[in-house]
Amino acid sequence: MGPLVRIAGLLVLQLIAILTFSAGFFPQKTFLKGDAQFLHLPEEQQDIQPRFEKLVLVVIDALRSDYLFQDEMSQFSFVHSLLNKGDAWGYTAYSNPPTVTLPRLKGITTGSTPNFLDAILNVAGEDSSSSLGEQDSLLRQFRIKQKTIDFFGDDTWLKLFPPDFFNMVDGTNSFFVSDFEEVDYNVTRHLPQQLASQELWDVMILHYLGLDHIGHKGGAFSKFMRPKHREMDTVIEQIYNSVDENTLICVMGDHGMNDMGNHGGSSAGETSSGMLFISKKLAEFTKPEAQQNEHIPIKAKNEDYKYLTKVNQIDFVPTIATLFNFPIPKNSIGVLIPDFLRLFSSHEAHIKVMDNYQQISSVSGQPCEEFETIDAHISAMREIQARLAKTATKYNYKLLGIGLILLVFATLGVSKLCLETLHFSASLVILVLVCLLLSLSTFGSSFVEEEHQLWWWTTVGFALICFVKAPRRIGSIFVTLGGLRIIRGWNNSGQKYIYEHTISELLKSNSGWQWVLNVLTLLGPILKVREQSVISIATIVSLSAMCLIYKASWSIVNAERVPLQLQQAVFQIIPGIANDQDPTEAVKGQLVKMARMFFSLAFAAVFFEVMAHRRDRQRRSGKGLLERIHPIITLILIFQTSSANIPQFLVFQIVEPQIELLWRRLSSSNATALMTVGLILQHLTFFQFGGTNSIATVSLTNAYNGVSENYNINVVGFLMCLSNFAPSVYWSCTCLKMLLQSHPTLQQKWQVFAISRLPALLFYCVFGCFLLGSCFIQRYHLFIWSVFSPKLCYYVSWNLFMDVMVGWVLEPIFIAMS
């Protein structure tokens, strides 16, 4: 156990290093304390009359700009009529990445640029470290003016602002993405009462989540998208018809989405959200220039999603402050939208622009200059804004240095241990080459975005080495490379290029073939247990059937194509479907129960196999424990995989025996070679499942399997990791299973396990040194927040989940139970 303890100690040092570096790289932003005051001619500003008395803010989560303005995509017919007659002014609002809800809500309430750490805190449902209770914001300024605020919708607002900020509150869960309808109904149901008693509130905030959930589930072109547009359009019409001209209605998205329905990155679709200002009063003034000669919806499709006038989303803050005549929040770097100066006299407009200029100059710490025109002042503010947005984060250099130095020491320690254990073997040389190849790529943004290409060519290179060493095994090499080549064309795996004709898209349009492949995939685990006990076979058959029924049910509920025969079978199997009931709704109500039944049976099956293994061990017969439970693990991973990706596991099960055959014929005693292959396959298949180094491709689709609305964030977090890393978990367990088969005693298993952890630890240490160095050197690079920071987050995730959770917790448990 000596080497194992040393390796574990180096692992702890490595984790301390990367977490220390991350704490310095993603610090909590500092902000100016206190409440803002008018800076330019404060006494005159106090006398300026607010242009509006009430505000209705409607946030439609993930409302991309084309959803409001483009003819093919938009179903907001009432909004279009308002835009054409001038009662509504429309904009494309640039949302600074990371494009997730929490940092974007901070942006539209404080006017400040986001902290990348907020993207991580966005999924921590019980986290309160991002509260804006003590920070100046639009809501705080409304409270100072004794305005009453009512809020209904996404409970992220309730994490940002204390309860005493609101008069009436009804929060809805922002991460239960399986719900498209109830989550919005819970907001809309308050409207009749609110609109009938407008004297009881001054500000009403509505945050709708359904459109975002549809995107996550079915992509930007989901069949549910158009009905949701019409639903939101009806809500806007209801509000507009119930309020007078002194009420300003603001409709906006907190961010956009890419075509896959995800967000978090910096693509044009993700950063381009729609923004509307609606009031009967606006028709009295000239429309914005870009809107004057344009008929909405716009026929032309714009690839960069720029429709009408483009503004920064944070410009919303000084614009609202100006229209309601209160000080611009202290930390805002927004610039008021010039079109709204038309609502003021020339003298008042000049005062408001000068106040904004002095406020943003105070944030930048530079003295104000005098310009002759309002346009010149606005241009100067735009320059300050751009400069402040680039330098928004203050790094903790002490923590960065400590983290990097500790990781270098950990890497030196692991390198020394590898030399002592593996010597200068060919497998060690290959492992080092793989480490260096991938590590050097961290200094190029394009290499980070297209990392899957490097893993593919690394795989091809490894196959060529196998061919040189064993030319007679060309059949196994051909089957392996052929299978992996099929996987390579399955999804869009990079960030720079999108291919229309992927295998997954072809299967979606030919659902019969897709479900035939899904059934064949689920037969694989059954065949693996054909020589085990009747109970084992019955359990695996039951799990496979339950998995098929659940995935088919889920696809039916989400309007994916499912063969008619399979649909009818599901409707007959699901209990409680009445003749007069919509079968889809009945199936939807059973999804959580079905998932829980599957997980319960899977855990019971693992327990049974452990007991059976102990019995067989006493008789000195039977398979190893990991070999026994591998089919169960495979089914759990398939259960956590989207229907379109399930057939990839069929390819895995075809390729697996070929890899094992090659390994046993070439170097059956070489654990390093096998685990290096496992490391390569973990990363290759992660990307071929559709993963990238962008936060936008983190899938929440299967994170709620078996989870009700009142979920536990830890359970959802684990299921999210399991679904996103499903192929990687498969290859990690598979390679360890192969390795342990030839080591019967417990002592031998622990010895070979210690050696098996070295390749991954060496890779993560060497790769980490280069990545951390790259992030430090390029900390002011144009793509630091859109490319390098997400990659650092993924690197930490690979370490914590795959290396620690799977490699050092789950797999040792299986060995200990052996």
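That was protein one. Protein two is written in the same sequence-then-structure order:
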Amino acid sequence: MTQVLRLANGGLIDRTRMLRFRFDGRDFTGHSGDTLASALLANGVHLVGRSFKYHRPRGFVGIGQEDANALVRVATGDQVEPNLKAGEVVLRDGLEAFSINCRPSPRHDLRAVHQIAAPLLIAGFYYKTFMWPNWHLFEGAIRRAAGLGTAPEGRDLDRYVHAYADCDLLVVGAGPAGLTAALDGARTGARTILAEADFAIGGSALWRGGSDAAEAATAAEAELRALPNVTILSRTQVFGYYDHNALAAVEYLADHGARQRLWKLRAGRVILASGAIERPLVFAGNDRPGVMLASAAQALVGRFAVLPGRRAVIFTNNDSAYDAAAALAVAGAEVTLVDSRPASAASAPGVRILHDRVVSATKGVRHVRAAIVADRAGRISETLPCDLIGMSGGWSPIVHLFSQSGGKLRFCEEIQGFVPGEAVQPVTAVGGAAGALGTLAIEPLWEVPGRGKKFVDFANDVTAHDIAIAMRENYVSVEHLKRYTTLGMGVDQGKTSNVNGLAIAGALTGRAPGKVGTTKFRPPYSPIALGALAGPLVGPLFRPLRHLPAHDWHVARGALFEEHGGWWRPSAYPHVGETLEAAAAREARAARTGAALFDGSPLGKIEVSGPDAARFLDRVYVGTASTLRPGRARYGLMLNENGVVIDDGVFVRLADDRYLVHTTSGGADRIAAMLDEWLQCEWRDLDVVVMNVGSQWATLTVSGPSARDLLAALGTDIDLADFPHMRFREGRVAGLPARVLRASFTGEASYEISVAAGAASGLATAIAAKGAPFGLTPIGVEAIMILRIEKGYLAIGVDTDGTTLPDDLGMAGGVARKGSDFIGRRSLDRPDAVRPDRLQLVGLLTDGPRLAVGAHVLREGGVPGVSDGHVTSSVDSPALGRPIALALIRAGRARLGETVTLYDMGIRHRATIVEPVFFDREGQRLNDGHS
């Protein structure tokens, strides 16, 4: 298609460089310097999509970040990115874009029937309209209809990078005010960063002020680029302002290499020169294609040499629109200006001006074809045929970043908008962002009387009627109004809608706009790619998983791996055709009847040494470390200052001044850091060294009735006949230097053999070679979970939560026996800690199917909604031949033998509360014949 609306002269495009692109399968041309929006308009394309809720035809409201109407999907090879603003998409050769939220096309959208159901889709309809007979009857259809573009299903193949910079001065916005501020700072020698979202430097000087303004901007840019202390970041959107003058920005890079760069900036001072956004006027039919901001029409003419309409109506309540009207007239359009004010000192040569009049409605379907002009009382005076309506309801300074910084906003009567007020960080707003907009002589006009849909928020199809409904239903708080109507949400973030919406709400409730207040602006200011936030930290780098020292050995034996506590560990070793559940049950039976091999290398290992090591651990553990003799081990709980259980494990006294502390696998780094913090911050008088040695050792556990015989067959110089439970020995096993601990998480006699990490595979191979006569079976984490639940052993974070105290686990004896203080002790005497109805760990037996983890214990009466506790762990026990579970239940220990009702996903179950130990309650199997 030829560029039918491209002017023969003018603009800042490079007419020598023709670019070809496609939109909705049709071929078009544009020029270097175009955006997708300007190129489409140059080709006469005004209809580019359908609206969010009602699927009304939508065109361009603006031509940049302010446009929430013209959202497109851009495809680059196999990559697809939805919901991009056409005015922010830089035109490039071969670009392919598609309209969104329409089937099959914007001209013929099947979902346009939503307009028939418009009376049902009012503000908050999902809270009240579709409640009968059942919300779930409608939920699926409503959720499928929600949203605009379709999220890509494939992996993001683009590359993103992160960068960091600090500066003395950060200037956001490279318009006339921003360029001046950057020059003033840079000339003093200050390290200056100038960030501009547009691909061109100059801001409004690119389309307003004539050639003199453009030349001044070009000269300022050249001077800044020549200074060594200045960094100019074009195509860089500053989207977040955080504490301590930290800001975040996304830079859009060239088409080769990385796609985007996330900047994390720290500035001594910030100057916000981000400008202001023109506000729409609220009148019936103001969302039709061909109705746009007057400044957008002026920018199309001045910057892109595009005449967006040949018969234009400019509707305004202030003086700024007169420049737009004059620019359109000079470009060859027939222009009528409708001014709601009785008179104005401004002028627009060649433009017909109607004072004390308003545009009360529009005509047209897929494009505007007429404006209905009325007096202020709503009496129609004439109908103006047109193909363009430019509206100007005043200007809103871009205060989003200032608000994010913690600054307060105030309402300025002179511009009828919110401007920066008191700052709490070193930040200053200048130019349009500060409300310096010249003489607008604006007269408030928040809503034009008349019938029909009057849109306030184009992005979310929020109308003036929706705001009226919210006010009638008492959602008068701006935060409630926002969430009830979706005003200012989504891709727009209130850029064109907030002030109008708040003012209309104020008028309906008898409050001035300044008294209504504003919502708290949150990052990001504009949508950003999730890939930019992640940067290079994707795939294995997103959360690096640690591999076991004997990883390859497990792979060779068919292990099925899953993540457990940051480690890539075998869940089970299924045979061909065997399910994970069946494999875990088989492995658990093997541990009870023969011998099992479990890789416990992730178990935390921290060496605590020094003259005060015993005193230190006495303060850390509920149990007492100082009375433990070398070569012996003891189970202990660690609490936080609230008395809550945060970790458990076995600690071993290696020597008088040296201990080996075992933690849970997922808690090793956290506990090591905690111990260091206590030593460095609270107990600096203690002479103690804490060293995390987990990565130095591999731990292979041999467990089961035949474990001791298997260890003997391996060959060891340790006296196994004198090696009872909870003892520690050092010696050689299978010819390797080893540490061996008699501790168990299975309930069977177990030997935890620790060797140098590099020797793990060799030891595992030796154990497997000697284990066949004993029925040795490698077991994974799933089998270990079965075995520990049968024995009633707890798992931190599974059978505990952020409120669990030692007595809740039946472990108050250690507290009572200990005379000295320890972390969290005083919290155990608080009234809440001694309530008799606390959640306590108990067992559950059921004759039915296995209970679901998370199933709730119902209170007396069995009414869902009031919980008496919940299931924390649940398995089918191979040793018992029935389902068993652990649960946290109110006053559970006082209710042993009670039958309770459990509720999960609409199904009720019955179970009996029992002791949490289901297997070998006397512990005979642990001792392996030793006392």
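The first helix runs from residue 36 to 42. Keep this in mind for the problem set.
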